[in-house]
Amino acid sequence: MVCLFWFLADESVLSLVLVTGCVSVGKINETDIFRITGTSFVSLRNSAQDEESVSELRKFLNGGSFYFSWSPYGPNFDLSLCAQRYLSTLQNTDNRFFW
């Protein structure tokens, strides 16, 4: 569940984005990796105009290029980090060699 706030033209849109569909694409260690296939937007302003505003964003999120991780055993795997950065969060490394 994600609370999303963005600006379109001269107005702001505040919505709650719920992942309603996903497909397992694999595992990294004990963490499952999922591809988002469906989302639902809930307007936090109760405005019908927000539905028009989020239609393009919904297509973008449901397009098959967004992923998330989930693990019942501990912290989730951060998909935004490369392997070297991820390992540096687990142990002390010499940060001079990261670019």
What helical percentage do the residues reach?
Answer: 10-25%
Number of helices: 2
Low-confidence stretches: none
Please state the average pLDDT score: 76
Radius of gyration equals 17 Å
Structural class: alpha+beta
Strand order of the largest sheet: 1-2-3-4
Query: What gap, in angstroms, lies between the N and C termini?
Result: 32 Å
Largest sheet: 4 strands, antiparallel
Number of strand elements: 4
Shape: elongated
| Total of domains | 1
Structure description:
This protein has one domain. The two termini are 32 Å apart. The mean pLDDT is 76. The protein has 99 residues and is an alpha+beta fold. A four-stranded antiparallel β-sheet has the order 1-2-3-4, with helices on one face. The chain is elongated and about 50 Å long. It contains two helices and four strands; from the N terminus they run E-E-E-H-E-H.
Précis, in short:
This protein is an alpha+beta fold. 22% of the residues lie in helices and 42% in strands.
Labels describing this entry:
2 helices, 99 residues, alpha+beta, four-stranded antiparallel sheet
List the helices and strands and how they pair.
Layout: E1 2-8, E2 11-28, E3 31-43, H1 48-61, E4 67-70, H2 83-90
Antiparallel strand pairs: 1-2, 2-3, 3-4
